[in-house]
Amino acid sequence: MMTKAIKVLIVDDEEYARKQNKSLCENYFNTSKYIYEANNIELAKTIILEESIDILLLDIDLGSHTGFDLINELTDIQFQIIFITGFNDMAIRAFRANALDYILKPIDSNIFYQALEKAVSNISQKNIQLRLNNLLQYNKDTYPQKIVLNTSEDYIILNVTDIIRLQADVNYTNIYSNSGENFIISQPLKEYQNILDPQQFIRVHQSHLINIDYIERYRKRDGGFIILKNKDQVPVSQRKRENLLLKLKQL
Question: How far is CA 226 from CA 165, 193, 209, in A?
């Protein structure tokens, strides 16, 4: 059971649809929830910025705008997104927008409840991982020496010094360790860049974050790429090259 009250934002330009979704949420959550409503993306964005919402129930067709317009205006998405729509050909685009689920109108209550259950489970897992990561940090002013990886089967405690590199894969991150084990984590690369020491982990490409202790050489040809001690080759973007070379000169 969730001990924290869940915050849900319903975004739909049709009042009856918002009422239906609100009623279903109230049935599912009972009293452990806060439910907000918005009929346009401007109001929705304001609520998102002011409230730490947990679940966004987002209609795709919002009159002069779409639910994707709202997502495109947000820079830091920490909540679960469930798209609700009358169009059955938007699923691929919805999941590319980091959607947890996709519900077709008219809404089947059982499918709706299943989507909420999945969202609540994800929130619970994220809270557990956050608490574990906090326990592993020495204090709020230092970078963690260990991190907790939430895989599909385990919570894995990994020494930060054992991480060779991290690679983005859409909304997932592949983490490569010096033991030869690789882990696929359902968190974006940006989350790890925010918690790892920037003096130790350097972003050399939109998709790559590397531990400088594992750099073996920088090869200038073919646009420039790094060869790591495990012989992995990592491309270096033109925008990141100057910062990388500065770091290498400081080693």
Answer: 11, 19, 12
Q: pLDDT-based confidence at 140, cuts 50/70/90?
A: very low
Phi, psi of 192 (to 5 degrees): -75, -35
> Quick one: which of 9, 11, 10, 13 has its CA closest to 63?
13
pLDDT at residue 247 greater than cutoff 70: yes
Confidence at 213, pLDDT banded by 50, 70, 90: very high
For the chain, the DSSP string reads ---SPEEEEEE-S-HHHHHHHHHHHHHHHTTSEEEEEESSHHHHHHHHHHS--SEEEEESEETTEEHHHHHHH-S---SEEEEEES-TT-HHHHHHTT-SEEEESSPPHHHHHHHHHHHHHHHHHHHHHHHHHHHHSS-TTS--SEEEEE-SS-EEEEEGGGEEEEEEETTEEEEEETTS-EEEESS-HHHHHHHS-TTTEEEEETTEEEEGGGEEEEE-STT-EEEETT--EEE--HHHHHHHHHHHHH-
The pair of structure tokens assigned to 197 is 């020491």
What is the tens place of the pLDDT at every residue in 182-203? 999 888 888 888 889 988 999 9
Q: Which residues contact 207 (CB under 8 A, 6 or more apart)?
A: 167, 168, 169, 189
What was the pLDDT predicted at 113? Answer: 94
Q: What is the pTM of this model?
A: 0.54
What is Dmax (Cα atoms) for the chain?
63
- Residue 186's pLDDT is what? 83
CB neighbourhood size of 251 (10 A): 7
